[in-house]
Amino acid sequence: MNPFAKLSIEKREDVSPIGRIIAILVALIAAMLISAILIHLANASPVEAFTNLFKGAFGNKRAILETMVKATPLILTGLATVIAFQGKIWSIGQEGQFFLGAIGGYWAYRIFEGLPALALVPIIILAGIITGGVGGMIAGLLKAYFNVDVIISTVMGNYIIDYLLSFLLSGVGPWREPGSYYQQTAPISESAYYPILSANSRLHIGFLIAIICSMLVYLILNHTPFGFQLRAFGSNPQAAKFKGININRIIIVTMFISGALAGLAGTGELFGVQYRLRPDLSPGYGYTGIIVAMVAGLNPIGVIPAAILFGAIINGSAQMRIATGVPTALTFAIQAIVLLSLLSVQVLTRFRVRRAERVE
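The structure corresponding to this sequence follows.
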């Protein structure tokens, strides 16, 4: 080795698929090592903890199906993030739009409750799409015509929707179950349940809907004029404007689609899993969906395995807590460690170190 040679950092033009896979494996191993240290500090065995985490997520057919149930809303909220972030529209409103979809679906259920399941379920899904989409579109309109920062409007929107739901389920609200001490609606009738895909499980048709949405978002982004315009806007808004792209239309339509996807997640969770509308319908699926999208590199197809990974962590953590006694907060810490490890590796793989010419 020449001690007089310089080292330079250069940006890679492209990263091979094998290189990406290796990078992901390295990131996951690093995340496991860091998580093992935290588990050890919590006076638990890392080996026992990870073993139970894996068993709880993939140990048998029932565990696998339940992991897919947990992944379903994460796929949809992840896709909601992908389509917005592809245009550099930094929406943080997926959690609120998730609840808007649930509110819209429940509202439609109350109106059309007497219809047969074949008619009622599609109406509920459509209502969730529309209400979630409108919630996203409002933030898009504020950005397009009043230049209101999307981060601020969507975060504030989350609070407004949360208060709206609290009112609807409060003692004076119209939807609270009569005689109930808790903020919740009465149980939903079986005619409104999402069809189950596998017997003796909670895996419902929402999982297939999420997979189809992932493919549709991929086609929209890569094979439609709108997708090209959105990506062009995300790369260089000024250049896109000079090219004649209608910027306001792009923002509004993008936010409607993003909100519709998040709303679809809320409808699926209500009518496919919980069967009651409650303030704790989501344990943070909207925010976790942002993490899923970032881990997937804003790739709509990559959202599927990323969501399954985080669904596995959520599902397996219950058995890990029971078997080892680790605190609940450690589950969220592991999610954050996985995110930071994968993002760090993604950044590092975009660059390489090369030896420059010899310095005299």
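Strands lie at 5-11, 351-358.
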